[in-house]
């Protein structure tokens, strides 16, 4: 009885910790969006920012077992996944720890509650399997979110280039055009805009434009963004016409987007072959042959 009570308490504590960290992450992300003016919400005040930064989640990640290299790598992965909050590393680490504790605990509780005849070996095996799942689940979530964001970034990137070309042709400098073009991005692509806002902050902090563009391309994770950063770096170093280079590159990006659309359209017939063969054709054959089969059976019946 005491074991069941202990498992219940651990499960409740783990679920409460996971819910709290998830709620804190969502509120923190909402604050970041408001600070960037994303979603059309009013800008967060200095008091809200200061009060949010005084949260107990703003602890040293070294206390959670993360060294400097691991913290930087995790921070880079979280930014690529769209989580820009300063405490995202702590929240993700705490959520992972809660998941590693809570999921095996809940599994053990379910086994002891609904399968009373199961032995200790089965409970340990289920707990071990759930622990392995809980260990890889956060990273799998980050990978899936990165792929989703890459698709969104790839869709909005040609439009960003078109706006950038218009700003350059209007007489703005490259830095001003980048800031203006990123400001015209809609609220539905707040993560894409946040990356360029970070780039603008790096440039104001003293980083050169090619270096800031290269860092932004790494955060976006797009080959097109890396090519764009390399193009601007070569253009700045060689002193060629930025407007002409961007116009050519923008046309190439639009052609590439059209090629991807045509490729997806061409891949539809092979993808439809299996559903048609399994679900459509048997129904059509049954509808066509059923009357004839019924007549034959009725004619041959004694």
UniProtKB/TrEMBL annotation:
<keyword id="KW-1003">Cell membrane</keyword>
<feature type="transmembrane region" description="Helical">
    <location>
        <begin position="6"/>
        <end position="26"/>
    </location>
</feature>
<feature type="transmembrane region" description="Helical">
    <location>
        <begin position="272"/>
        <end position="294"/>
    </location>
</feature>
<protein>
    <submittedName>
        <fullName>Type II secretion system F family protein</fullName>
    </submittedName>
</protein>
<dbReference type="Pfam" id="PF00482">
    <property type="entry name" value="T2SSF"/>
</dbReference>
<feature type="domain" description="Type II secretion system protein GspF">
    <location>
        <begin position="160"/>
        <end position="289"/>
    </location>
</feature>
<keyword id="KW-0472">Membrane</keyword>
<feature type="transmembrane region" description="Helical">
    <location>
        <begin position="81"/>
        <end position="99"/>
    </location>
</feature>
<dbReference type="InterPro" id="IPR018076">
    <property type="entry name" value="T2SS_GspF_dom"/>
</dbReference>
<keyword id="KW-1133">Transmembrane helix</keyword>
<keyword id="KW-0812">Transmembrane</keyword>
<feature type="transmembrane region" description="Helical">
    <location>
        <begin position="119"/>
        <end position="137"/>
    </location>
</feature>
């Amino acid at each position: 009885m005491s074991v069941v009570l202990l498992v219940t308490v651990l499960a409740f504590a783990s679920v409460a910790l996971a819910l709290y960290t998830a709620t804190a992450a969502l509120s923190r992300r909402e604050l970041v969006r408001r600070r960037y003016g994303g979603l059309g919400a009013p800008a967060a005040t200095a008091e809200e920012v200061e009060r949010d930064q005084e949260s107990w989640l703003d602890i040293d990640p070294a206390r959670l077992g993360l060294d400097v290299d691991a913290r930087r790598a995790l921070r880079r992965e979280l930014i690529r996944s769209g989580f820009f909050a300063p405490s995202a590393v702590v929240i993700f680490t705490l959520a992972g720890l809660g998941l590693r504790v809570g999921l095996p605990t809940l599994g053990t509780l379910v086994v002891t509650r609904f399968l009373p005849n199961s032995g200790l070996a089965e409970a340990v095996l289920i707990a071990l399997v759930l622990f392995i799942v809980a260990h890889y689940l956060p990273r799998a979530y980050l990978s899936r979110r990165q792929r989703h964001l890459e698709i969104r970034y790839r869709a909005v990137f040609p439009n960003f280039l078109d706006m950038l070309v218009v700003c350059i042709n209007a007489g703005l400098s490259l830095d001003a055009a980048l800031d203006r073009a990123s400001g015209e991005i809609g609220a539905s692509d707040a993560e894409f805009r946040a990356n360029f806002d970070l780039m603008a902050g790096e440039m104001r902090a003293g980083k050169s434009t090619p270096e800031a563009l290269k860092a932004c391309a790494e955060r976006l994770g797009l080959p097109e963004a890396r090519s764009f950063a390399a193009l601007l770096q070569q253009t700045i170093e060689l002193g060629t016409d930025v407007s002409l280079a961007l116009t050519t590159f923008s046309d190439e990006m639009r052609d590439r987007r059209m090629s991807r659309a045509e490729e997806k359209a061409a891949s539809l017939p092979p993808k439809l072959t299996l559903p048609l063969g399994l679900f459509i054709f048997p129904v059509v054959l049954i509808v066509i042959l059923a009357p004839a089969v019924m007549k034959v059976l009725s004619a041959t019946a004694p």
